Amino acid sequence: MNAHLRAALDLSGRGVPALPLRAGKVPFRNCRVCHDNACGGRPNMKIPGPCQCPRPCHAWAAATTDPSVITGPSWSTVWKQAAAVAYHPGGIGLAVVDLDHADAVAWARRTLPATRTVPTTRGEHWIYLGAMQSANHVRDGVDIKSAMSYARWLGPGTGTMTALPDAVRTLIVKKPSPVQPVTAHVPARSGECRHRTPAYLERGITMAEQRITEATSSVHTTVYRTFLAVLSAHGRCGCLTDAHAARLFTAAQTRGESPRHCADAWSNARTTLGM
User: Fold this and answer.
1) Could you tell me what percent of the chain has a pLDDT over 70?
2) Which one of 188, 221, 235, 262 counts the least CB within 10 Å of its CB?
3) Burial, 221: exposed, middle or buried (Cβ in 10 Å; 0-12, 13-18, 19+)?
4) Under a CB-based contact definition with an 8 Å cutoff, are residues 155 and 124 in contact?
């Protein structure tokens, strides 16, 4: 048994979802069954589809605590090629502030509360209790790896883990309203509304928001299907406005979707409906 496989089994035994990485600290490519995300995922993005494939495809979503998957035949050849092991911080309620160079580490020491730290090749990982939306390049040399992301496993680190501070959460808030720069491309009014009262539209938007915010799995698929349903019902009469789209985008972002993912899902739904 090689060292990477032993590390993954050790992590899984402690309830930490693990996955193998190939050279370059990147996940293994999608398996043949899931080539080009045919199973429903998003190309070049860390979004899993509905696939039940046990192979290490879909990046962070491949992380598992199931030893039968880790040691199973689908992963057996992968471990022989693996260059490192990663884990899914958001899956165990953690956030990793990835500090990529000495200046970033110095900034963290001046700005952030002390917590558990892990040395990396060029800097440090600061690990906090609490999950949040992941984001890259929140400032020079600083990434946040938590929900829908993975971090390389470099050991348990030293120090006491502390609660995720607002100083970290606010790093991803770059503008007062993250949905403002996104153009929803709501179709122009095309005639008299077939919905008899404004309450019908308001009820539909409220139900759509609720469906998104209550999603506990397959969030991206839920967002897309909800956008599709809203546009199908309200997108051609002209009553749907950018303000309504912004409400849906905001709901999606509370579940970890980025503004770009929201815009893509909205555009794909419009394309599907021929809008």
Assistant:
1) 79
2) 188
3) middle
4) no
pLDDT digits (tens, 9 = 90+) for 206-239: 888 888 888 877 788 888 888 888 888 777 777 7
Write down the residue that tokens 């598992």 correspond to: 64
**Can you tell me the distance from the alpha carbon of 34 to that of 145, in angstroms, rounded to the nearest whole number?**
25
Model-wide pTM > 0.85: no
**Number of separate helices (H) and strands (E) present in the chain:** 9, 10
Inter-residue contact 161 to 128 (CB < 8 Å): yes
Q: How far apart are CA 20 and CA 224, in angstroms?
A: 29
26-27 and 84-87 beta bridge pairing: unpaired
Sequence-separated (6 or more) residues with CB below 8 Å from residue 122:
100, 101
What pLDDT is attached to residue 262?
A: 83
Mean pLDDT calculated for residue range 134-159: 91
- Residue 8 is classified by DSSP as H
Report the alpha-carbon distance of residue 155 to residue 178 in Å, rounded: 35
What is the per-residue burial (b if ≥16 Cβ within 10 Å, else e) of 226-260?
bbbebbebbbbbebbeeebbbbbbbbbbebbbbbe
pLDDT tens per residue, range 69-98: 888 887 788 888 899 999 999 889 999 999
Average pLDDT, the chain: 80
Query: Which pLDDT score, from 0 to 100, does residue 219 have?
Result: 80
Tokens 């606010």 found at: 170
Strands 124-129 and 116-119, sheet pairing? antiparallel
